[in-house]
Fold this sequence. Notes:
Shape of chain A: elongated
Largest interface: A-B, 29 and 29 residues
Order of helices and strands of chain B: EHEHEHEHEH
Structural class of chain B: alpha/beta
Radius of gyration of chain A: 27 Å
Number of helices of chain A: 6
Number of domains of chain B: 1
Strand content of chain A: 5-15%
Number of domains of chain A: 2
CATH superfamily of chain B: Response regulator
Strand order of the largest sheet of chain B: 2-1-3-4-5
Distance between the termini of chain A: 72 Å
CATH superfamily of the largest domain in chain A: Histidine kinase-like ATPase, C-terminal domain
Order of helices and strands of chain A: HHHEHEEHEEHEE
CATH class of the largest domain in chain A: Alpha Beta
Oligomer: heterodimer
CATH topology of the largest domain in chain A: Heat Shock Protein 90
Structural class of chain A: alpha+beta
Strand order of the largest sheet of chain A: 2-4-5-7-6
CATH class of chain B: Alpha Beta
Shape of chain B: globular
CATH topology of chain B: Rossmann fold
Number of strands of chain B: 5
CATH architecture of the largest domain in chain A: 2-Layer Sandwich
Number of strands of chain A: 7
Helix content of chain B: 25-40%
Amino acid sequence: xxxxxxxxxxxxxxxxxxxxxxxxxxxxxxxxxxxxxxxxxxxxxxxxxxxxxxxxxxxxxxxxxxxxxxxxxxxxxxxxxxxxxxxxxxxxxxxxxxxxxxxxxxxxxxxxxxxxxxxxxxxxxxxxxxxxxxxxxxxxxxxxxxxxxxxxxxxxxxxxxxxxxxxxxxxxxxxxxxxxxxxxxxxxxxxxxxxxxxxxxxxxxxxxxxxxxxxxxxxxxxxxxxxxxxxxxxxxxxxxxxxxxxxxxxxxxxxxxxxxxxxxxxxxxxxxxxxx
Amino acid sequence: xxxxxxxxxxxxxxxxxxxxxxxxxxxxxxxxxxxxxxxxxxxxxxxxxxxxxxxxxxxxxxxxxxxxxxxxxxxxxxxxxxxxxxxxxxxxxxxxxxxxxxxxxxxxxxxxxxxxxxxxxxxxxxxxxxxxxx
Lengths: 276, 134
């Protein structure tokens, strides 16, 4: 009788064990299928982006051609029509030459940065700097542009962060790129918050906006070369190099950069710079 | 009565270099910097000619052109595409939608634009209207 009971218990235990093993195997297969699906999706998205890289040349040509055409056109007018132009008109045209030359220089700088990053020759020049001063300077620089679009910029500084070693010019470039994107992708009446805080031994900087936000499917592609997110009107502009270069700069400091959804709406770009 | 040109252009630089010589020749140059309000502006201002960029905030220039041709009150307005995107797809779409001409910004010498506009409007390119300030 006792033997039968033991046998029964063993059979039940065996069945339970089989059930558990089956369940584990089932869930593993399910996870593997999920993982496989995810992997396939990423490969598809990457392939899609590779195709975009093929389309990059016309975009680059367009981006270079626009300021060049303006410089050429303004110079032409100044040469041929100088006697008929008013002082204000001359001033406007000269200003146009200056700002178009600056945007060309920025673009050439970006292309050079990308080429250095690709060949592993990109370097940052670190020295002891104050992150508060850097963030305030970039915020002030973008304030007039934000105001023109009916947006506000707020700077929230963690005062406990002391001076540490980083490349101030390059970090200005990263923060500037993030703010400029936030302005580009935010509808009128929005708010942009630039903040710093100490997280462990890192300085964490974030740029939040109340814009249209970023689709989950776009997030893995954002920091790739030539990827251009669409703005609220579905219009794509620019070279698609800003976030790629920003990632290169942050990684050259030993930090990380990523994007999250801002609550209740918009995007939150975050990057870290190790302070040690 | 000066002829009215509506410039649909979001780039300040292009607007400046192309509007200056037109104003110097006496044209009344108006500007709208986004695609979404372009059609309304055409309805209200009734320009003689529209210079229309393609990459615009709001609605693309090609969609603006399509809408202009679909609406009774704007379907016959003279539209010249003025862009730096010269790919075949855009050109054929613009022609299909009914653009009167397609000009590349980098090919246009600003001081020569008034003559081109005059020929589009069937005017004597050498007409001399009073010079006005910006």
